[in-house]
Amino acid sequence: MKKLVVLLFFFLFLNGCSTTTTTADSETDASTPRIVIGFSQLGTESNWRKQHTESVQTELEKEGYEVLYRNAYLSLEQQIQDIRSFISYNVDIIVLSPLQESGWDDILLEAQKADIPVFVVDRSIEVSQETLKKSAELALEEGAGKELMVTHIGPSFKAEGNRAGLYVSNYFRNQEYNEIKVLELTGNVNASPTILRSEGFSETIQRNYQDNQQTIQVVDSISGDFIRRKGKEAMADYIAQKDISQIDVLFSQSDEMTLGAMEALGAAGVTPGKDIIIVSIDAQKNMIDKLKAGEVNCVVECNPNQGIYVRNAIKRFLEGKTDLPKEIYVHETVFSDDMDFSQIPPRNY
Ligand code: GZL
After folding, report:
1. Main-chain dihedrals φ then ψ at residue 253, nearest 5 degrees
2. How far apart (Å, rounded) are the C-alpha atoms in residues 10 and 252?
3. Does the predicted model carry a pTM greater than 0.85?
4. Given 43, 48, 226, 320, which is the most exposed site by the fewest CB atoms within 10 A?
């Protein structure tokens, strides 16, 4: 009996000292150092954003990577500082979810000089021609990386705007009207979803003509910075200054801003979805519930579940695959008041 107890103790002791980290999908041991990924997120401004963070972190950790997460709380300066800390920590890879399009030239050159690959997710970035030239020269230097960024993984914001414009065009197609007036509620300036959703929406509604006159027009644009409180404030200010009864459609670039605007509309006695047609982008659960309740008319999906795409791209990159495209689009769709709501997948955000 005594021998059995000693053996059992010996087994438990060995097992307790195991150095392998077994995850759902992969196994590493002490001899292979774990890949460390610095994940710079722009904020936590919406349920959409929180799901985006959750999706990226969970999928990377499932692959056995160590994820260092930093939240910049909607500050560009903080986000650049976070990335600089990843560089000084000498992480293996940087995943950047950028607040805005511009301002990344210097920090991306620093990452390339340190030979740390950068994967841009969700919103996209723009750099100058001069920076691209510097990057090409840097690529020839010993010890530097080959490029500013490996790829961009995210939604097609322009297609989201197209889908919103198509809903509005179809909604009024069989109705007698002279002009349909649209109020646009936009996200923060200099952000690719703001710019491209507007472009896509305008591109589609411009196809509506009667007697050579464009019949659906964006007559005013207000900004809510993708934040509920600011969406409410912007709509309340608009109602105080202009005649909201002249507006036929609210095109809002994110559900959080839509929810805020709807509060202001309700306070002004305007019935959302009836007195004013509402089109919103994201497809958070709280907005799908409004669609089902008839309070909004169309919800364009913006997919926050980008983690699996990021995981696969990084895995392929680390395996030495050189065929990664420069743009990887995530799958998205659109939900509207004329569809069978039972077909809407459960929302995990
Ligand atoms: C779009 C994303 C936007 C969402 C908002 O991919 O960047 O930012 O539409 C979020 O919910 O604030």
Report:
1. -85, 0
2. 64
3. yes
4. 320
